[in-house]
Write the structure tokens for this entry.
Amino acid sequence: MTASNNGVLNSKVPEGNLQDKWDNHKNNLRLVNPANKRKFTILVVGTGLAGASAAASLAELGYNVKAFTILDSARRAHSIAAQGGINAAKNYPNDGDTVWRLFHDTIKGGDYRSREANVFRLAQVSNNIIDQCVAQGVPFAREYGGLLDNRSFGGAQVSRTFYARGQTGQQLLLGAYSAMMRQVGAGKIQMFPRREMLDLVKVDGKAKGIVTRNLTTGEIERYAGDAVLLCTGGYGNVYYLSTMAKNCNATAIWRCHKRGAQFGNPSFTQIHPTCIPVSGKYQSKLTLMSESLRNDGRVWVPKEKGDNRPPNEIPEDERDYYLERRYPSFGNLAPRDVSSRSAKYVCDEGRGVGKTGLAVYMDFADAIKRLGVDAIKAKYGNLFAMYEKITAENPYEVPMRIFPAVHFTMGGLWVDYNLSSTIPGLYVLGEANFADHGGNRLGASALMQGLADGYFVIPYTLSDYLAENLHAEKVGIDHKAFDEVENETMERINNLLSVKGKKTVLDFHRELGQLMWDHVGMSRNKEGLEMVIKKISELREEFWQDVNIPGENSTLNKYLEYGLRVADYMELGELMARDALDREESCGGHFREEHQTEDGEAVRDDEKFCNVSSWEYKGEGKEPVKHVEDLNFEFVTPSQRSYK
Amino acid sequence: MTIHLKIWRQKDRNTPGKLVDYTLDDVNPDMSFLEMLDWLNERLMNEGKEPVEFDHDCREGICGSCNLVLNGMAHGPMPGTAVCQLHMRKYKDGDTIVVEPWRARAFPHIKDLVVDRSSFDRIMAAGGYISINTGAPADANAIPVNKYDADLAFDYAACIGCGACVAACPNSSASLFTGAKIAQLAHLPQGHPERKKRVVKMVDKMAEEGFGDCSNYAECEAVCPAEISITSIAEMRREYVKALSEIE
Ligand SMILES: Cc1cc2nc3c(=O)[nH]c(=O)nc-3n(C[C@H](O)[C@H](O)[C@H](O)COP(=O)(O)OP(=O)(O)OC[C@H]3O[C@@H](n4cnc5c(N)ncnc54)[C@H](O)[C@@H]3O)c2cc1C
Ligand code: SF4
Ligand code: FES
């Protein structure tokens, strides 16, 4: 593992004042004239918020867009499940919010591991996003006067979060989807549902096409384009259990990584503190309970180990409200990474609750006493109902049981300021890239980022690349590069089908997930990471010798799809562990036990690690090489986050 | 607990399908219905048999992927709930559950419990949008929307596009789905400029795709996981009649 010089990674951040960078940059980017736009085909892979917004915007500009999704319709994607809301610096409530403040909160929340210029641009375009969505008919919450309502989210000191009941992601996605459907109707977007991108095709070092599997027929298909946009979301499902939708996966980004796109900060994972705990081996995914509950819920465990009395029988003075105790100024609103870690500690001490001991209480009794049942119902009724549906317990009467769960991946393919990966012509948008959230993402900022990338960044930056390639020779799907990639893909599928071993894909995924959760989860140490790297590589070998994939390639076969994805997780999981091992500091969601204060708080090392680790794939069985992008803080001064 | 399943198995559109019996004797009441199917699939795979194919993604009732008819009820016995949110504790030890896919001409069969719902996308492409390009629209607060309309628009916008309304309807009508989108946009000032064109195009497309007419059975409302009200269908009709009378 060698750290190479920085020359390889050019972030292309424009010169000038923070406030002027994006405008200056836009002034300098080359344009493509309308007649020429028609000559370009853009392949958009993934139609969540990032992909749908990009596809619609590019088609409106006149490009030919081909859009791909694993699901049966672009109206569905993981984005649809986002509950809480989307941030913007509108300052409608007049509570002192500004673009600068949103920028500053986001970069601080990320524990100073993201690029200043990117985060500032994100805050700048946040307001355009809200305008755009409202114009599309997104029914955001409104006040009686007819104007938009805002709330404070995730401990922010201002109310800057726009929301649509508990279904913000759904409404934003349907807005972007309908903009897409308009372009489908106009013939500018061709939609390819039930398609999974399995590899990237490069010609002379540039991204020129993709190979997909038609998930209904099993056919391997080829698509050529002038640029490829990966909008394929996060890879939290490496951990097996997460709050991610079941079809979220890492295949597209991992395959591109293997073709030369570097992977930024792979170990940066967000573990969300308030999810419904695991109930048994059959558990297939975890459900998030919105963070907004922490505004009124008090988190506690019994003071005594192994105290298994029902919660309501445990007297007040025998309860440990550990967040309030450890973080008096933030209390139950301490940031996600800090809250999650604290829950882990008390459970490790044997003070966890519920059947498994892997849960803590979130108690609304005080809030109900203070505000009345009706007020609590009005605020959280739908969340309480959802909790009751899943657990059969009534949270108005007994405290909720919650536990942290994998929720978001801040890591992803490395991109420059233009969202270009290290492969020219391959752009990465939304959760799939590593860019804007640093070591820890703040609530309501992923929706903002996905839509910023798709609506307001890529339409500008892509035109610069296309203008440069106006006269490049067109590559057709009969190019030999397609033959090679298609053959390799077929071989991979046939190999997998021919193992015919004894263990199911689920067996392997669960094993991998447990290893990742135990050692590359909320708390990491050298010994565990070294061990897990070895274990994963053994598991991978076993997988290719003993997995049992049912059926054949030529029909719908979800366990074959799943098998291909798990094969990729086995490789990515190892890279995540390597990255975590290499980063000898604690920052954001990445907590290395060797780097903590006496009372267990994270210790960041800005001397050595004020940078992005960007990993280059070197081939089967070879160690990846780390490149480093230094993060220069010109406009803010990194400070130690303190929530005491 | 023990659960008997009769599951529709069909290799593809051209092969006839049939109900196949399975018994699971180790079902945990805390399992979701889909987790029970995962459990069954694991067992089938371990026995060298082909697992049952079904669509799913979010497993929290919001994406609209899951689509199972249980004992004749689209999404199963719990009102206002997608089948992925149904837990086995709703059933009794020894119960028999018949599991079938959506059945409608406009939703061609793919495999086992999976059908093709792309006709919904085509209805949307016919007019289920507001024609606004990405750019610099007016400030979001430039047009106030009274809270009554905003809330109503939201109620209609909550449709998850699952297709249960079609599956439950004796006429296989997509009126609840289409009506919900039309009513949402009709209640927002942003939707007004195109409302006539929109309703005519979407309604015509619905018929063209092979969905039936609505004759007020209201079965759709009963099964809709998003609890979309059939007033949306009334709104759609009103919009349609108004549009036709004024378009000439
Ligand atoms: C439960 C939950 C709640 C959340 N709540 C909030 C919130 O309140 N506010 C907030 O800001 N953020 C929230 N987030 C985070 C946020 O929802 C996501 O980060 C964001 O929606 C990701 O959008 P995306 O477009 O990048 O990816 P996704 O929405 O994941 O879309 C990925 C797309 O890529 C497709 N795809 C993937 N792989 C392939 C392939 N190989 N070939 C073809 N297609 C492929 C998929 O089909 C899909 O269309 C939440 C996340 C979760 C899990
Ligand atoms: S109206 Fe209801 S039943 Fe019909 S598609 Fe929408 S959510 Fe499903
Ligand atoms: S799986 Fe998403 S609604 Fe059921």
In short: The CA atoms of residues 124 and 401 of chain A lie 39 Å apart. Chain A touches chain B through 79 residues (CB under 8 Å). The longest strand of chain A covers residues 400-409.
